[in-house]
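This section describes the prediction task in plain terms. A model, or a person checking by hand, is given the sequence of a single protein chain and must write out its three-dimensional structure as a string of tokens. No templates, partner chains or ligands are provided. The sample shown here is typical of the held-out split.
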Amino acid sequence: MNEKNPLPESGEVVIDAAKGSISDLWKKEDYWAIWLGFLILLSGMVIFFSNPPENMEQKISEANAIMASEAENAPFKTVVWHEAEASKNELKANRVGFGKKLKTLVNKPHGWKTNPLDSLILGQEKADAKKAAAAEAYESGKARTAAALESAKASEAAAKRASFQNETLNEEAIVAIDAWLREKAKLSKLKRKAGIKPYNQAVPLVGLGFAMAIMFGTGYKIMGESFTKFVKGFGFVFVLAILSYMLSAQATMKAYGIGYAAWAIAIGLLVSNTIGTPNWVKEAVQTEYYIKTGLVLLGAEILFGKILSIGVPGIFVAWVVTPIVLTTTYWFGQKIIKIPSKTLNITISADMSVCGVSAAIATASACRAKKEELTLAVGLSLVFTSIMMIVMPAIIKGVGMPFILGGAWMGGTIDATGAVAAAGAFLGEKALYTAATIKMIQNVLIGVIAFCVALYWCARVDCAPGQRVSAMEIWYRFPKFVLGFIGASIIFSTIYGLLGSDVGYTMIDQGVIRGLTKYLRGWFFCLAFVSIGLATNFRELKEHFSGGKPLILYVCGQSFNLILTLTMAYIMFYLVFPEITARI
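The expected answer:
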């Protein structure tokens, strides 16, 4: 485990490849991350695929027929087209049978305003009071949505009377339909508040904690460590993870975008730098074990069909800009700022340019960065992510930037996937779709960057002058969990393609992923962030932050990233491929 085998200093010769053996398959945490991740994914498929929504294929076929008919008769997506799509999207495997119950078992604490216990337990009396408080807003929302629908229908009818030949009337109809869709989305949120039911999330959380302790503890035991000691410490780490989720669920914290990751690291740091992390807890402080397993689950969310749906513009924004920003930032850190640690430099560069924490973990593993360097990179990422997810939508709206362009800009520059989705939602469905898809395309680079960093470090950094680099040395350096990430992506993309986009959406997007793995991935990441805090001491961080060079590197690199991403997005989406933009 990484706590017992510290990462080598930068410049140390690569470990002999001969140390690798077949026993690594059950003795190394990278492989255990793969086995656990695939076990969870397989379990999810068995659960959800065995209980699809009733008459799923018939309902999908009927909706598609209506959508096809509407598409033939109008040059834009009509009200009826959107209603048919909505009826199809209501088919979700996580809303039927055991899938519905499973979501409750793995769910995180609920939102709250003044009483933190409301995030865990809500009695009938409080539920009724919340319903009553939300009822007026819901009824008002229904009225606004109905009015917006009538306006949309009227505008569409006017365009239809002109045989859809009047561009002004067509544009008015599109604007009115978009306004109706926004009101409809707001109404959906109000409906959830007005339909709140009593819950007791505390009991499922206890069960979830036991299940994760046994799952991770079993792997820990087979890797040669103590199952009992791990489980004992895991309880403490898990409680801090719950507390992190609870604090992030508070209404004000949610409004300012201060998520569970920031709270998890802050709470861990508070413990480690005050009372100190107890020795009996340290056995369960396994940052990489947790997050690598979560990254394997993330691979299942990277679906090639969705990447292709946005086409070449998105690929250019994600796959051309990102390597340029990464290499330029690393060069800037070495030649201009002169950051002493190459591993810190590349970890920050990857964190900022690729996709935040996930890329930082993979890169740090590939170059053997110190845990303090990883903590520093992750901390910078979380601070700037919180700022950018609020500021960028405001700037986009303020300057009147097209929302598709704004979505592409945010998707290529905001680090965390969740923050990208939240920022995109501020601007509407098209911005959300574009931003999330760009970020998904960018996430594919996690494995590529990890391999390239491992190769570069073997050939140019850790090897002695004149030493010949073998393929086995590169293989030994390469973080193996990335294979699980790539494998999950390939397997689920293939299954998604075989099922078709509609059934895939119902059974995978709204089943395996949003009914199970996405929640567990969040928990695994939260455990990792808590562990980062518990394993970090401010005194250890001080030497790496000397002169503020890491902050300067991040700010300069992100500034370059913002300029280059916006430029590339505009060129690709509006100059080179405007026809693709028109279809979004």
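For orientation: The chain has 28 helices and two strands.
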